[in-house]
Amino acid sequence: MALRLLGVPWDQTSVGVKGARLAPEAVRRELASCFPYDPVRGRAASFFRGRDLSLGEEIRDLLREVARAVEQEEHRDPEAPLLLLGGDQGVTYAALSALHHRYPDLAVVALDGSLDLDD
């Protein structure tokens, strides 16, 4: 089964350590090193497909663009799981707002190493 990856190179609203904007490229690079070859097909593996968004500087642009991209991906292939790479909590809100009509009971599990808490 293929997974869809939607990269969101965004960390404008992060407090403290920046770097989430670099995650999509870094994750794709590591995934490519894990699954470099498909022996059944005799070619490079392509378990993961997707794209990275090109975002402006404003949070409202981010929310609109992420929601639009998630809706497009959902229409394109609703059966393949969609993973968001990078971004901050605003990315999660935008993505879920785009899916709420189809999955009204959708829940979120957020894994964040620092939760952007700085003392």
Automatic annotation (TrEMBL):
InterPro entries: Ureohydrolase, Ureohydrolase_dom_sf
Cited Gene3D superfamilies: Ureohydrolase domain
GO molecular function: metal ion binding
One Pfam family it belongs to: Arginase
UniProt-recorded name of the protein: Agmatinase
Natural source organism: mine drainage metagenome
